[in-house]
Design brief:
elongated, 159 residues, alpha+beta, 5 strands, 2 domains
Length: 159
């Protein structure tokens, strides 16, 4: 079964997402076992992220496996806390007769987004003094201030 969700907004995925270039989509296989629904498949999405070093846009394609088990929402807990085991972390709950597959898809996409995306491995970033992008060249700022506590060691290095 193919599934796509265009309702997702950039901020629903993460702060570093500028734009969704292609909405998340998934190829899914659903298996019903009693009242448990086992969903397995893969997802893909294209996003425009922000480089964590120079703040330039970076287009990335993400894909990965999707594995979620849906079970009925437990009843009668009346605000009690549940302790989850490791195998319970892939469990989502549903109420009624419908399951919202977009919730599992949103979670997997959000987890796949890199925490600190970079436009390239050797991105020089921004000047910490004036904020100019070092991709455009050096700015001439003197950002090599030595912490006074380490000044004596810096002199030893020069010898």
């Amino acid at each position: 079964m193919s599934f796509s969700d265009a309702r997702l907004g950039p901020k629903d995925i993460g702060a570093q997402v500028r734009e969704i270039l292609e909405p998340p989509s998934a190829e899914l296989h659903l298996t019903l076992s009693g009242d448990l629904v086992d969903v397995r498949g893969s997802f893909k999405v294209r996003l425009l992220l922000e480089c964590s070093r120079c703040l330039e846009p970076v287009a990335v394609s993400l894909s990965g496996p999707l594995k979620v088990v849906y079970q009925p929402q437990p009843t009668g807990l009346s605000g009690e806390e549940l302790e989850l085991a490791d195998e319970d972390l892939e469990v989502s709950f549903y109420t009624g007769e419908e399951i919202d597959l977009s919730l599992g898809l949103h979670d997997e996409v959000a987890l796949a987004v890199p925490m600190a995306p970079v436009c390239r491995e050797n991105c020089p970033g921004l000047c910490p003094v004036c904020g100019k992008s070092r991709l455009e060249g050096e700015c001439g700022c003197l950002d090599k201030k030595v912490d006074p506590r380490w000044a004596k060691l810096a002199k030893l290095k020069l010898k």
